[in-house]
Amino acid sequence: MPCSGDCNVGQISAKAVVEAIQRRPDQIGFVCALGLPLRIPGIVKKAHENYNRHVAVNGCSVACA
After folding, report:
1. I want to staple 14 with a disulfide (CB 3.0 to 4.6 A). Which of 4, 8, 22, 23 is the partner?
2. Which contacts (CB < 8 Å, 24+ apart) does range 6-11 have?
3. Which of 53, 19, 47, 15 is nearest to 33 (CA)?
4. Residue 30 and residue 37 in contact, taking contact as beta carbons nearer than 8 Å
């Protein structure tokens, strides 16, 4: 779950996650980080059904991810 914030490091962290997914598409994916705490049903379902481990990637010192 990458930060995609409006600062340059947020954009860099999002690009790093996308690159990781491209390298290992059968092992890595991502869901909307905001959808989990908001309990958006489709996002929560995808996270539970498709992934058994979750990693949040922060893009800056705000650490919202």
Report:
1. 4
2. 7/59, 7/60, 9/59, 9/60, 10/59, 10/60, 11/59
3. 47
4. no
